[in-house]
Amino acid sequence: MKINLTRQNTYLLGVSLFLLIFVVVFSFSILIPEGKSYRIKKAELKKESLELKQLSDFSIEKEVILQKLQGDNLHAIKAFDTEFNAERFIKQHRSFFSSLSVSKSVELENEDGFSVYEVNTTSEISSPKSFYNFLEAVNKSDWIIAVNLPINFKREGEMISSSFTMRVYNNLKDTNSTKQ
Amino acid sequence: MKYSYIKPRHKTVFTKDIQLLLTFFSVTLFMLFSTYAFLLFRDYRFVEEVADINEQKSELRAGILKMSDEIATIEKQSLLAEKVFTKNSVLRDSIANLFDLVPSRITLSEAKIMEDGLILYGITPNKDVYNFMLQAPLRSIFHRTYSSFYPDKNGWLRFVSTNYIDEEEEIGNEN
């Protein structure tokens, strides 16, 4: 059987074959690998988005905890940041004593990551109740102050003179920032 | 000189068949290239989005680390503040209890409150009042109690009461 192909049909067949081969080669060598890569990247993006959401939720949880802690411990946080001021201390607590004097503070060794200052205090009180009230007020003062033993009470006429030391706790100063 | 009575047809390569074929392949190629362009664009967007997410993650991690540090600091501050406040309150109660312990018939002239002891100076009408009303409760609190007396002008007795708590004994008892 003899097939007679006209010149036009030959062109038609040639063009068809060329285009068909191009489509197949393009699809298999470029389009399909690119599609696979697209699927992988899409899955990766989904995974990353999920991790981001988890991190974001964790960050929000931490923030809530931090805000609650800050709210609950506002006085302590502020007190640790406040530098001890003898004049202000006397002004705030003079009402509990007939006379009150606070000596210059001496820096002690750091304790539990906080700087500690020791101040000697001498005072006169009319009754021990004033001293109890003072100890109550110290817990609400602008600083974190621990009244230390030994405490000496001595009757002097109608008054009781007392002498004791107090420890003031502060946040450690960042030495790197002060050096600048 | 004419050999034909009809007008010659205009011949072209783009016959109806070729046109149909080209249209078909044009549509196919357009769809292929569009798909490829779409994939390239999405890939580019994915890379950008992943980079953006990674940046956000780094920021969040740094923020979480900072917040964790702040939480640890506040917890430490709160713990120490609580310890100090409790110590002051215990001290207040201890001093109040000490002064409540002294009966009205005995007058204290001086009191030294120490970590491990207490020294009291005062006046008592007689030794019995001191022994029953002050020394007895002091003995129940302290491990060692020493008292010394010397007469005062009005016939009363001045006393010095020295009281100590032995820490070693405390530890021994605990064990």
3D architecture notes:
The complex is a heterodimer of chains A (180) and B (175). With 180 residues, chain A is an alpha+beta fold. Chain A is built from five helices and five strands. Chain A folds into two domains: 7-72; 84-179, Alpha-Beta Plaits. In chain A, strands 1, 2, 3, 4 and 5 form a five-stranded antiparallel beta sheet that branches. Chain B has two domains: 22-101; 105-174, no CATH class. Chain B has three helices and four strands. In chain B, strands 1-2-4-3 form a four-stranded antiparallel beta sheet, with helices on one face. Chains A and B meet through α1, α2, α4 and β4 of A and α1 and β1 of B. β4 of chain A pairs antiparallel with β1 (107-113) of chain B.
Summarize this entry quickly.
Chain A is an alpha+beta fold.
CATH architecture of the largest domain in chain A: 2-Layer Sandwich
How far is it from the N-terminal to the C-terminal residue of chain A, by CA? Answer: 100 Å
Order of helices and strands of chain A: HHHEEEHEEH
Helix percent of chain B reads 55-70%
Strand content of chain A: 15-25%
Poorly predicted sequence stretches spanning 5 or more consecutive residues of chain B: none
The mean pLDDT of chain B is 86
Q: Structurally, how many domains make up the residues of chain A? A: 2
Shape of chain A: rod-shaped
Structural class of chain B: alpha+beta
Count of discrete structural domains of chain B? 2
Could you describe the largest sheet of chain A, including whether it forms a barrel? 5 strands, antiparallel
User: What structural class results from the helix and strand content of chain A?
Assistant: alpha+beta
Which outline of chain B best applies?
Answer: rod-shaped
What proportion of the residues of chain B form beta strands (DSSP E)?
15-25%
Poorly predicted ranges of chain A? 176-180
